[in-house]
């Protein structure tokens, strides 16, 4: 139901805009906006983060219960040519995941809530097609550095005290696609993007044979963003 609601909200906002812009002979809106050397804007959106685990031994997996979080941030875009732009999109991303560790009878030991507030700094290349009336599809990709404010990396406590620890700084690559819609007053751009951590984020427990982290070789974030951009 969460996934259905997530997609429904995105489609509800995008479909009326698309219908209005896909006319055969539209009135051209904001004809010179893409000719500026610099563009500014902001984005709002949703996210759903997951974890990818790699294990030392092939035993029961750690279960991940995902939730829908939110994104908000700013956009700075530098024009290279008609088809290429470089983007900075610093943003705040909030999410929560619940981990279920195998082998425990007590829920207090088996369950760990991981609440993360990420400050994300992506540097992206936006590759667009030629403008078609009042809309223009694009692909976007690049790298990012993320700071996890809820990492608990410096905590002396570990899972034996109920504290799940992750590294504060994470490196990622991002890949997505979207459509620019040119309205009368602003450019509106819905997009969907995947984010994939390149570095291991797990801070192991102090005991190398910990029942929580002893069998985990690496833990990396996987996530999906649905963003609505206004420029």
UniProtKB/TrEMBL annotation:
Check the record and name the InterPro entries matching this protein: Beta-barrel_OMP_2
Q: Which residues form the Outer membrane protein beta-barrel domain?
A: 20-201
- What are the protein's UniProt keywords? Signal
Residue span of the signal peptide, if any?
1-20
Q: Which protein is depicted?
A: PorT family protein
